[in-house]
Specification:
single chain, about 120 residues, Signal recognition particle alu RNA binding heterodimer, srp9/1, 2,3-Dihydroxybiphenyl 1,2-Dioxygenase, domain 1, 2 domains, four-stranded mixed β-sheet, 2 helices, VOC_core
């Protein structure tokens, strides 16, 4: 595959008040394994070698609102996770510590909040 200008996208960093705790949530959710854990930064990679997730300490972290109101901390990004079955994937997400968001904008997508409040979508694919 050609890489324009030698660039390779490798990792998404997610801010959190406790990066280790949030990484362990995603480890349970996705079945990935933590490869590096430092006090303020944790890294995990997809088993197939794809893009990884990293979690870093944000000492002044403010949970995003979903959907955000005019004075709420805005969501800066969210993860999209394809699933085969919304109900069983949602039950798994809740068992891992996710919360179903009150606002659900689409029929074939479920928005959940991770323990730090970041929205993520489970979508039927």
């Amino acid at each position: 595959m050609t890489r324009p200008h030698g660039l390779t996208f490798t990792t998404v960093n997610i801010s959190a008040p406790d990066p280790g705790a949030l990484a362990r949530f995603y480890e349970r959710l996705l079945g990935w394994h933590i490869t590096v854990e430092e006090p303020d930064w944790v890294l995990m990679r997809a088993p197939d070698g794809g893009v990884g997730l990293a979690f870093q300490t944000e000492t002044d972290y403010v949970r995003p609102g979903w959907p955000a109101g005019p004075t709420d901390q805005q969501m800066m990004m969210h993860l999209e996770i394809r699933v085969d079955d919304l109900d069983s994937a949602g039950a798994h997400a809740r068992a891992c510590g996710a919360t179903l968001a009150d606002h659900q904008p689409q029929e074939d997508v479920r928005v959940y909040l991770d323990p730090a409040g970041h929205p993520f979508c489970l979508w039927l694919g």
